[in-house]
Every structure is written in structure tokens, then in C-alpha cells.
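The following record pairs a protein chain with its ligand, shikimate-3-phosphate.
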Amino acid sequence: MNIALIGFMGVGKTTVSRVLSRQLGMPEVDVDRRIARQEGRSIPEIFETDGEDAFRDLETAVIRELCEAGRELAGGQILSCGGGAVLRSENVAELKKDGVIVLLTARPETVLSRVGDGSSRPALGGKVTTEHIAELMEKRRTVYEAAADMTVSTDGRSPEEIAEEIRKRAESFFTRPPKYV
Ligand code: S3P
């Protein structure tokens, strides 16, 4: 049984997945880090050189590979997904086969404070303002919500508190048989 963390850039998916991994003793994999390592390039470089569609193809392939590899693991894994990973329904279907999808949310102001100058977030297109973040977030909201089995707000909370809530709420999913869609 996997736990996949999804949500907008800067909601804390990477940090929370590390804490969850420690708390649950489950391995965690960061999809973007895996793509960058495999390609030997940063995510902004891949966007810049090959374009977003090429990045999305890599993302889909890596998610599929990780899910397939995870089926060989006894205890499941925590997958920290990039903010656009669930924009493709095939990725959602793949993630749902093996586990629970947890949507992390944050206010646009919180995201702004976490993304710095935005240079590591090419999907923001250099528009690092609360207004632009709010607009993109709103565009993605229904897709995020449709993909999610549970939603956890991160505003003003520590990664430990967030991980604790996920652990408690995920327990019921761990006792259910996996969904094959
Ligand atoms: C993206 C989010 C990024 C990364 C890529 C695209 C997006 O991940 O996958 O830059 O479209 O929201 P984070 O959510 O970890 O920043």
C-alpha cells in the first residue's frame, strides 16, 4: 500500500513525505528527484531544453516505473509527486491502483513564501505573485480534488503535525484491499 502526496508547488510534499517515511518506516521516493537523477539535469533545465510536454512524458514513465517496482516491496512506499503529476488521468489511475492519494493544500500566500524566486518552479513561468499562484491553483483545484482520497491543509502547521494527521486518516485505507481500476 503506497501513500502518494500530491498538491500545488510549495505545499510541502517533499518535507512531509520525509517525515512520514521516518514515522512509518516506509521508503520514500521523490518523483522529480528521480526524473532529475535519471536525466542528469534539473527540472528547470528539462523544461527549458525539451519543453513541458517532454517533462510530462518523463513524469508519467517514472510514476509507472515506481508503482511497478513498488509492487515488489512488502510494505509499500511514499511517493512525493510533482505539482502537475495528477494533471494526467493515467498517472492518477496508476497511483490509485496501489494506494491512497493525499492532497496537501496551502493558501497562495503560503506557497509564495515557500517558492522563493520561483526559479526552481518553471511551471510558474516566472510569474511569482500571489495572484498568479491563486489563479493556477484555482485552475487545478478540481483535478486535485477529484484525484484525492483525502485532503490535508498545511497552513500554519508543522510537517510532523501534518504527517500525524495523514497517518491517522490513512489507517482505514491500509485495512482495505487495493483498488484495481
Ligand atoms: C510542477 C511542479 C514541480 C515539478 C515541475 C512542474 C507543476 O514539482 O514537477 O516543475 O506543474 O506544478 P513541485 O510541486 O515539487 O514543485
